[in-house]
Write a structure and sequence with these properties.
The chain has 5 helices and 4 strands. By secondary structure, it is of the alpha+beta class. Strands 2-1-3-4 form a 4-stranded antiparallel β-sheet, with helices on both faces. It starts with a strand and ends in a 6-residue tail after the last helix.
Length: 132
């Protein structure tokens, strides 16, 4: 399930503030966006999350100039959608304290026992004992 929440920038402020509670359906989201039809669509963000609890963290990230899991109202109204799996993946990338944005560097096995183990596995695959 995807949870939605709407935030707006008002006046000259660059700070985003919540203007809705947590919504659980696109119909409710579209109904709410109709209320804000006079507001410029680039001043309305729709935050997406796989849990209601993750919303505040995303708003904080957005206000700090970091990436967040949000789309503009214009993007939503033009049909841009994310699946629950895509939202979860994005949250893992944004919220985890890992090195997800660091390119993977392959290191070949060191000589000795690892190389011997790989050679034995390769031989078993070539003999048909194991399937890759």
């Amino acid at each position: 399930m995807i949870y939605y929440r709407v935030a707006l920038q008002t006046g000259q402020s660059s700070t985003w503030k919540w203007r809705s509670s947590v919504l659980t359906s696109l119909n409710a989201l579209f109904g709410l966006l109709k209320i804000y039809y006079a507001v410029p669509k680039d001043r309305i963000l729709v935050f997406l999350s796989s849990s209601a609890e993750g919303m505040d963290e995303m708003l904080t990230r957005q206000n700090n100039g970091q990436l967040s899991n949000s789309l503009t109202a214009d993007q939503i109204l033009k049909g841009c959608r994310l699946s629950p799996l895509e939202v979860s993946k994005l949250e893992l990338e944004l919220l985890a304290d890992g090195d997800h944005d660091t390119p993977y560097q392959f290191t070949p096995p060191t000589p000795g026992r690892q190389a011997l183990a790989w050679a034995k596995l390769l031989a078993r695959v070539q003999n048909g004992e194991l399937k890759p």
